[in-house]
Amino acid sequence: MTDKTKSANTMWGGRFAAGPDAIMEAINASIGYDKRLYAQDIAGSRAHAAMLAAQGILTQADAEAIGEGLQSVLAEIEAGDFVFSAALEDIHMNVEARLKEVIGEPAGRLHTARSRNDQVATDFKLWTRDQIDAAITGIEALQKAFLTQAEAGADWVMPGFTHLQSAQPVTWGHHMMAYVEMLGRDAGRFRDARARMNESPLGAAALAGTSFPIDRHATASALGFDRPAANSLDAVADRDFALEFLSAASICAMHLSRFAEELVIWSSAQFRFVRLSDGFSTGSSIMPQKRNPDAAELLRAKLGRILGATVALFTVMKGLPLAYSKDMQEDKEQVFDAADTLMLCLAAMTGMVRDMAANRPVLEAAAGAGFATATDLADWLVRELNLPFREAHHVTGALVALAEKKGCDLADLTLAELQSGHPGITQDLYSVLGVHNSVASRTSYGGTAPDQVRAQVARWKERLG
Ligand code: ARG
After folding, report:
1. Is the pTM for the entire model greater than 0.90?
2. Which member of 268, 284, 325, 431 is catalytic?
3. Radius of gyration over alpha carbons of the chain, in Å?
4. How far is CA 405 from CA 58, 319, 425, 435, in A?
């Protein structure tokens, strides 16, 4: 039943006799969350008013009253003195209604040649653009934390895994630098998205543009956009920028979840590869011996939330006819939550990476386990005895089986035992069975040799400044 006691909305209620039903107001109002856009909303309105005056659409006096009024509304919001009203639906109408209270009649002229459709697209883009900048800053801080670890441990050996089975020894620094690369692509995706999104929707008005002689280039540049969006229908209907933000955030969170998983494994009593600081571990209320990697576990889980937001917004946008539909109001909470989550994850991971201590003796002992230098043995046979790799692989396999039967490592086999695999084997072979020699030999570009790792570190240090 319509709530007849309420009066119609003062912003659009000219043709309405009664106000909305309480449930209508509850489903329709977005002020509960879109108040986060207040600064962008006010910046957009100031740019719009200044442009209207410059174009002779508003008097200079009205534009000044609007500009100053908006500044005082901004101050009220920042001081926490502003009373947000659900009856006024959203941030745009809340700000405008308050402006009217503060400056009176000129406030009603602000919405000339503009609609909430281009207004919300502009505000939300500005907000998302700020989040992109914050994400890049957060990513770079994390990259620096990984770089510090990599530099310290450029030559520390550890097992490299495939299938989570010991594969070949690698260096700690190399493993850390793998994440620096991933994060570098994440930052790149955010930068690409920023460059693509940086077109101003303002002045597209409701959907078709306006008959007023506005200057969209002026408002675009006042708000730091590269140019105005070229098609007014697209400008108000587009949420690609939000989808790109969420997609980039999802990939980044996926990367964080992979390292989080490694931390969970590495910090276990079975692995003991790393120790997380007390600051990033928790105890158990019943098992006194426990040190749980809660932060890493939560980081492993958070992608669920960010990816959930991504899927939600894709689902909102799917099949929407041009131009604006109210469905699109469902964009903001998803992006807000994903952005907050990503920033928290980046900060928490940075803290953990800075704090974590590699257990070098354990890493080194584990590096040689599981016949991890078998490939080095095979490579030696190819290099020194000119065996085809397939044959070398076969000979090595037989020697691994022999060591396994004896319950020892490859390096513990006697020369005679090694020669049972191939008579050409000499004492020299032992030099490649050690894990340090193994990693030092992998000098191919991007390989795990300490010198290669140091080169990677140097490249990234220069890039990150
Ligand atoms: N609160 C709305 C949103 O977030 C603003 C745009 C409303 N436009 C409209 N034509 N009702 O999408």
Report:
1. yes
2. 284
3. 31
4. 91, 64, 20, 22
